[in-house]
Design a protein that fits this description.
Blueprint (H helix, E strand, L loop, with lengths): L1 E6 L6 E6 L8 E5 L9 H12 L3 E5 L2 H5 L10 H16 L6 E6 L1 H12 L6 E5 L24 E6 L7 H8 L6 E6 L15 H23 L4
Length: 229
């Protein structure tokens, strides 16, 4: 079931859609969009539906920069407000979560999620990042990885083999900076938007299955280690 959602009790306001599973697994995921999109993006809608089918409660919502204006990229200096929006969305969903709460997003939304989790490591239990924007297209030296060594929670990356924001080899090299458990799910022939005629129609379901497997292995390894790792 998908229902409109709004929490206007504080600033920034949270507006989006809630995906409720038929049989809940007790976990929740907050999901948001990239710099040129909104929470109605096809990728977010299909990913949220696939996650809900697997038992997750999902909130997909618009970041503050998108709530402020319907089009255009984030303005310089707005990133901190967007991270505050992520923080608020997580706070709203924490009360609806019996087990684990995850944070994720596409491109810019995923990048801001990683930066927020470095600021507040205990905010959520892990990250789901769709097409992390490793660097601007054609500018491989402008890496957005300075905070990676401070990521302390399990992080699952989904990345297309034709993404101009970073090759698979570049991503694999960058991920070595992350001390927490991490993995990358490669999508053959996909660009930055991941979904295209060249990618499989059941790609969202494949991503969710791989994400769940990653979480299962993470839990198992923590049990063996006897702690958070």
């Amino acid at each position: 079931m998908v229902t409109p959602f709004a929490d206007l009790d504080a600033d920034p306001a949270i507006r989006g859609f809630m995906h409720l599973p038929v049989e809940s697994n007790g976990s929740t995921l907050v999901l948001t969009h990239g710099a040129g999109s909104n929470c109605q993006a096809r990728l977010l809608v299909e990913m949220s539906s696939a996650l809900a089918l697997s038992g997750f409660t999902v909130l997909r919502f618009d970041l503050p920069f998108r709530s402020a204006r319907p089009q255009g990229p984030p303005r310089p200096g707005s990133a901190s407000q967007d991270r505050e929006g992520l923080r608020r969305a997580v706070s709203v969903m924490r009360g609806k979560t019996r087990r684990c709460l995850f944070l994720g997003g596409h491109s810019y939304g995923g990048r801001q999620s990683t930066m927020l989790l470095v600021e507040e490591p205990e905010l959520v239990e892990g990250l789901l990042l769709l097409s992390y924007p490793l660097h601007p297209p054609r500018k491989p030296d402008e890496l957005r990885t300075s905070h990676f060594p401070k990521l302390r929670k399990p992080t699952f990356f989904v990345h297309g083999t034709r993404d101009p924001f970073g090759t698979i080899a570049e991503m694999q090299s960058a991920l070595k900076l992350i001390p927490a458990q991490h993995a990358i799910f490669e999508v053959e022939s996909a660009g930055h938007d991941l979904l295209s005629k060249k990618t499989a129609g059941d790609l969202p379901a494949q991503i969710v299955l791989a994400f769940q497997s990653f979480l299962d292995k993470t839990v198992a390894s923590r049990m063996i280690a006897g702690g958070d790792g």
